[in-house]
Amino acid sequence: MRHRQTDGSVDLAQLRTFLAVYRAGSLTAGASQVGLSQPTVTTQLQALERHLGRPLFERLPRGVSPTAAAHDLATRVAEPLDALETVVADSPEADTPEPPVLLGGPAELLAALTLPALAPLISRGIRFTVTTGLADDLLTDLRLGKLDLVLSTIRPRGRTVLAEPLADEEFVLVAAPQVAAHIDIERLRVNDLAGVPLISYAADLPILRRYWRHVFDTRLEAEAALVIPDLRAVLSAVVAGAGLSVLPRYLCARELDTGSIVTLLDPEDSPINTVYLARRVGGPARPHIDLVRTRLVEAAEVWRACVH
Prior knowledge:
alpha/beta, seven-stranded mixed β-sheet
């Protein structure tokens, strides 16, 4: 197989191989995706690196790590290569099993709502690889083809991603009953938090500050007594009586029902986030991705009941 055309341009096979390795994170997995041996993949990547004059990957004990040049190249070639793949994918060579659906989203939303809704699909032969993280990072991976579907709490922008709203998550101000009994809401309104410990998933109190701005029309000036980057752990601390916090209602609905925590305020207009389901435009047909999307859209009806 030629790795460079006679006019010096890059062979499409090199770019296809590069993108497979970039998305898979390893030479072995990338080779499997494009149906080549690992030595052939290595040869193609070396030829591409010579043509570009820059290294594309750094070898790790397990897999490879893309360089800045690789990120730049993937950004430029992912969309046109996926579009080309759509054209050639119509040749019915497909008794090969579908690869896992690559799903991304916030850890708490995935654990509490998404994965239970998708569990029945596993018995139908659908496989999943799940990635958690921040919305901006996950949407970047979606655009580059490293994810198939992303649940995002920010609205994706750009023509390469199609997003549909699934549900709104409502935020509530909560504490354990024994803590709530000693909290004066009017003091909270004027930023008097003396003796009121705050629990947050980040040091800059993003959810708490948003709640204060939206509900109390003031900027929250305080520091957290406990910072832990997992809303499920924040909930556990609130239940244990460590202090107050602001949480998505879906995440603490059970604890509210049992009375292990209570809302400190029930405003008419609570802050909300819209959860979007994002997928790439174009690319080869993937029936399993379509089934997962359909299941998530159907499950959103139940979620709407949970998050309000």
